[in-house]
Amino acid sequence: MEEFLDKLPQMDLMRSEKMTLVQLIIPVESAHRSITYLGELGLLQFRDLNADKSPFQRTFANQVKRCGEMSRKLRFFKDQIDKAGLRCSPRLEIEPDIALGDLERQLADHEHEVLEMNSNSEKLRQTYNELLEFKIVLEKASGFLVSSNTHAIGEEIELHESTYSNNGFIETASLLEQEMNPGHSNQSGLRFISGIINKDKLLKFERMLFRATRGNMLFNQTTSDEEIMDPSTSEMVEKVVFVVFFSGEQARTKILKICEAFGANCYPVPEDTTKQRQLTREVLSRLSDLEATLDAGTRHRNNALNSVGYSLTNWITTVRREKAVYDTLNMLNFDVTKKCLVGEGWCPTFAKTQIHEVLQRATFDSSSQVGVIFHVMQAVESPPTYFRTNKLTNAFQEIIDAYGVARYQEANPAVYSVVTYPFLFAVMFGDWGHGLCLLLGALYLLARERKLSTQKLGSFMEMLFGGRYVILLMALFSIYCGLIYNEFFSVPFHIFGGSAYKCRDTTCSDAYTVGLIKYRDPYPFGVDPSWRGSRTELPYLNSLKMKMSILLGIAQMNLGLILSFFNARFFGSSLDIRYQFIPQMIFLNSLFGYLSLLIIIKWCTGSQADLYHVMIYMFLSPTEELGENELFWGQRPLQIVLLLLAFIAVPWMLFPKPFALRKIHMERFQGRTYGVLVSSEVDLDVEPDSARGGGHHEEEFNFSEIFVHQLIHSIEFVLGSVSNTASYLRLWALSLAHSELSTVFYEKVLLLAWGYENILIRLIGVAVFAFATAFILLMMETLSAFLHALRLHWVEFMGKFFNGDGYKFKPFSFALI
Question: 122-149+188-295 — its CATH code?
Answer without folding.
Answer: 3.30.70.120
